[in-house]
Amino acid sequence: MLKIIIPTIMLIPLTWMSKPNMIWINTTTYGLLISLISLFYLNQPNDNTLNSSLMFFSDSLSAPLLALTTWLLPLMLMASQHHLSKEPLTRKKLYISMLILLQLFLIMTFTASELIFFYILFEATLIPTLIIITRWGNQTERLNAGLYFLFYTLMGSLPLLVALLYIHNFMGSLNFLMIQYWIQPLPNSWSNIFLWLACMMAFMVKMPLYGLHLWLPKAHVEAPIAGSMVLAAVLLKLGGYGMMRITTLLNPLTNFMAYPFMMLSLWGMIMTSSICLRQTDLKSLIAYSSVSHMALVIVAVLIQTPWSYMGATALMIAHGLTSSMLFCLANSNYERIHSRTMVLARGLQTLLPLMAAWWLLASLTNLALPPTINLIGELFVVMSSFSWSNTTIILMGINIIITALYSLYMLITTQRGKYSHHIKNIKPSFTRENALMTLHLLPLLLLSLNPKIILGPIY
Amino acid sequence: MKPPILIIIMATIMTGTMIVMLSSHWLLIWIGFEMNMLAIIPILMKKYNPRAMEASTKYFLTQATASMLLMMGVTINLLYSGQWVVSKISNPIASIMMTTALTMKLGLSPFHFWVPEVTQGITLMSGMILLTWQKIAPMSILYQISPSINTNLLMLMALTSVLVGGWGGLNQTQLRKIMAYSSIAHMGWMAAIITYNPTMMVLNLTLYILMTLSTFMLFMLNSSTTTLSLSHMWNKFPLITSMILILMLSLGGLPPLSGFIPKWMIIQELTKNNMIIIPTLMAITALLNLYFYLRLTYSTALTMFPSTNNMKMKWQFEYTKKATLLPPLIITSTMLLPLTPMLSVLD
């Protein structure tokens, strides 16, 4: 694992010592090279053996997420070039260093083999994200957004620390590889219920669960583009990944403790999808769509069947790429008209046809069109929740319809129809933006050809 | 103050604390406390204004009362055990009295009322000495009598201190008061763990002293005592602004900075002793602390505070204020987390 971590650390001296006109090129190129190294971990032999060192390991669950994280860094750098072009050099380098630091913590989080190490890095990812949102966001609401983001996550995760230390005393070790063999079923008692809650709430807040999702629209909307991308694509998946790891310790309590969260997620996904239909703010629409997709992942993880785990993993990767792409598209709008309101820039298809193609593909993947991996994820989740309880198919069906509705609403409002007359002066699409969209879309489409690698450890 | 006098006074302060730490005779400990207190009064009064005199008087009164209480505890212990050696205190009354006296010296709740007011009335340098050096002596005595301290009393004091330190600092804009409430909260964390694992208390004290020293030195570089003056720092010392950001997050106890080490270790020790709710409560209340540190970083590093245009164009001189040992202090206050496994040498 050090072959990814040390180059990522070395990216920081690279930014600070590059020539001023080369900082973006250098970091993007070397970031892409590092992402190529992480692809090696996707080659997992089918018998669930784990690549292991003393402190880091990777298995079929963390390898796709690792690849997603390392793939995203060059994309974030490419997306940030425009809005940072007017800043002084030191601030550009600081911004890039924050992104690289965040990347480093994320890589270490996904490959941590011990749960307390995972916890420390889970919290450590908050600091660069907070700095990126609060320092480089664009509106005054970003202060509130940073506070909500930090404190919601910390409130959830401090009980997790206590719970992990308690489990450490109880079981002797928290190394994930060893714990699998020492698990005893957790008897039903009040204190074990609180233990379950303490373990899960941190990840519920991070996912986010419907009742605790208030930080997400604020943080996603106020963050600069790189912040939004990494938040939507990777940081939410930290919650899903953590939940999948820690539910192995918490059987069989999950069978009945999951009910309230299932209710909240099932209802919440419909609620947040419906809110998307009434949004005027483009980024806010994408943020609520993230909540809706992540609610599906929560449902899948809480059901704990093999198909649902496969669906959850596939959905996490698919949603990461799709949501990041949608934020990039929204940002390309924002950079031209400096407003997030959807109706201000309509009919873009006549002006920027290639960008309209990317909008179309992104919206289609967002609504889970076959044969994309979004569909595979959603379909597996819908099928496994149907087997858990037949009635959920109604809710899932309504959700799929509403998702299609708002994705098409977003597409039609921004791309189709008569253009608003003041957008004739916008700049045409940069090659950088088209490259960005391609780099998001290409993995998404190629994975449809071989989804086996993202289906997780149960496959 | 003339240098020879300053040297003598500083030497007396240090000798006082040394005597407290090194003695095994209770009378000498009391003498050490008194030496320390009397010598620090002129340091607190360095600026000769009524506010400083009020602060020194309050400090003197509380510390003198605490010393007297300590002496009473010592005498009761003498009556019941017949000797003056510092060891396990068998009489519970004497133990409670000594604990109360020492917590009064430290500024733990409910004896915390003097800390913000005294810290506010004195200069930044004196405040630094007050909040760091003066904690060493009482803590060392608490360490030595730790087997006989009443756990319930100290745990109650610790919990209320963390709450008071968190809530009290919320409405402050004066930096010295913020540091005072931060000191109350950190002392609360230390007091919680003394009866279970005194070594963690020493760890927390060391890291707290390092972080507080760094913070005060950064404040002194700019001679800023209010949030407003701190917010003008982005123009003069942009690097120091980033340092303040990291240091405040470390004081708040965020991983992966070294402020997280004592919290992690203390929660670990408490859970090993079957206390689950108390560390959870303390950890969540520490978030209040984090809130006002974060507010400081918002006004300093992360936003541009509203200021006049004159403030935005300052001459950028090289700074000549001596910041002794500032780089190593900052490094140890923020990057010590990977060295946590070294704590195993204590086994």
TrEMBL record, chain A:
GO cellular component, one term: mitochondrial membrane
GO term, biological process aspect, one: ATP synthesis coupled electron transport
Catalytic activity: a ubiquinone + NADH + 5 H(+)(in) = a ubiquinol + NAD(+) + 4 H(+)(out)
Subcellular location: Mitochondrion membrane
Plastid listed as a keyword: no
Family under the similarity heading: Belongs to the complex I subunit 4 family.
Protein name, UniProt field: NADH-ubiquinone oxidoreductase chain 4
Organism: Canis lupus familiaris (Dog)
Chain's gene name: ND4
From TrEMBL, chain B:
Entry's EC annotation: 7.1.1.2
An annotated GO BP: mitochondrial electron transport, NADH to ubiquinone
Pfam family, one: NADH_dehy_S2_C
Keyword annotations of the record: Electron transport, Membrane, Mitochondrion, Mitochondrion inner membrane, NAD, Respiratory chain, Translocase, Transmembrane, Transmembrane helix, Transport, Ubiquinone
Domain NADH:quinone oxidoreductase/Mrp antiporter transmembrane: 23-287
Membrane topology: Multi-pass membrane protein
UniProt key word Disulfide bond: no
Subunit structure: Core subunit of respiratory chain NADH dehydrogenase (Complex I) which is composed of 45 different subunits. Interacts with TMEM242.
Protein name: NADH-ubiquinone oxidoreductase chain 2
Originating species: Canis lupus familiaris
